[in-house]
Amino acid sequence: MRKRDAFTIDLFRDYQPTSVVDRFDGEQVKAWSLGGRLAKAIAICIQDSGMSREDIAAQMSEITKSNVSRTLLDAYSSQAKEQNQISAVRLAALVAITGDARPLNALLQEAGLIVVPQKYEALLKRERARELRQQLEREEQAADAQWKANR
């Protein structure tokens, strides 16, 4: 067994690649219900944006062509007011304004889905094509084996 060189720095020892999927830490958005988790996610998204709620509300109003007020944003981000849940259109506007997809991922977690940046779509298509090609190769090999066995 080779001795480890104690004088050479391991450049990759502490390396952690950045995540492709923006997610909250599970404890950050822990709640009793999906609506509660979404409300927490919205609150953190707004807080982390560095923008005022008034500015976010004004931009959401412009994007959705509907009246979104600070009071409404307060309701969307309150677990106590789960009856005032954000619509999909307004959630999409919030994500577009803040550039933060974490609320969408918090919402989609139950469905086993994630939101990834559009720039990765071609890579996902490539990987799916590889999977399909491998599946076809396995089917071809199975058919060849069956053909040889039946001769």
Pick out the low-confidence regions.
none
Instruction: Work out the helix count.
Output: 6
Shape: extended
Q: Summarize the amount of helix as a percent range.
A: 40-55%
Per DSSP, what share of the residues sits in E-state strands of 2 or more residues?
under 5%
Q: Give the averaged pLDDT, no decimals.
A: 88
β-strand number: 0
Describe this structure in a few short sentences.
With 151 residues, this protein is mainly α. It contains 6 helices and no strands.
Record keyword descriptors for this entry.
2 domains, 0% strand, 151 residues, 54% helix
Helices and strands, with pairings:
Layout: H1 34-49, H2 53-64, H3 70-76, H4 88-98, H5 102-108, H6 121-149
Helix pairs in contact: 1-5, 2-3, 2-4
Describe this entry's structure for a reader:
The chain is mainly alpha-helical. It folds into 2 domains: 1-116, no CATH class; 117-151. Helix content is 54%, strand content 0%. It is built from 6 helices and no strands. It has helices at 34-49, 53-64, 70-76, 88-98, 102-108, 121-149. The model has no long low-confidence stretch (mean pLDDT 88).
